[in-house]
């Protein structure tokens, strides 16, 4: 679908979206307006925004070369304890994914698993530490939030937490 160029492309695009899932907000022109909008969206638990240059013409799809567009996602970072290194059939890999938990009131609450973001070196070091002292290795995980059941949503390994 091709839409004509208008002063507020976001508002024009919004006319073609299902308003049950999308909200068209006024164009944020100043840095303060943009920060205010981003803070409001994040405080409401929104997933992120799509920022469109006010001089672009909208062309459907995700071809960001056709016009200037930036998608933002709000991420959550958590330090979690590895409870299990899951088995893998892939030669040379010490595990497939990590089951992780969060310590809440001295109890471990399962948060799901993390299966991406590791280098080979990271995997070997995590497996070594976990084998030496199971339940004591903490990692930092970045995710796009938590599911309705409190599990990690699109989690990615960021690093091993070192004792401070």
Structure notes:
There is one protein chain. With 164 residues, this protein is α+β, with helices and mostly antiparallel strands. It has 2 domains: 9-73, no CATH class; 76-160, OB fold (Dihydrolipoamide Acetyltransferase, E2P) (Beta Barrel). 20% of the residues lie in helices and 28% in strands. It contains 3 helices and 7 strands; from the N terminus they run H-H-E-E-E-E-E-H-E-E. Strands 5-4-3-6-7 form a 5-stranded antiparallel β-sheet, covered by helices on one side. It has a two-stranded antiparallel ribbon with strand order 1-2. The protein is elongated.
Shape: elongated
Query: What percent strand?
Result: 25-35%
Q: Domains counted in the coordinates: how many?
A: 2
Task: Return the structural class.
Answer: alpha+beta
* Major sheet: 5 strands, antiparallel
The whole-angstrom Rg is 21 Å
- How is the largest sheet built, in terms of strand order? 5-4-3-6-7
Note the run of SSEs as H and E: HHEEEEEHEE
CATH topology-level name of the largest domain: OB fold (Dihydrolipoamide Acetyltransferase, E2P)
Instruction: Give the uncertain stretches in residue-range form.
Output: 1-7
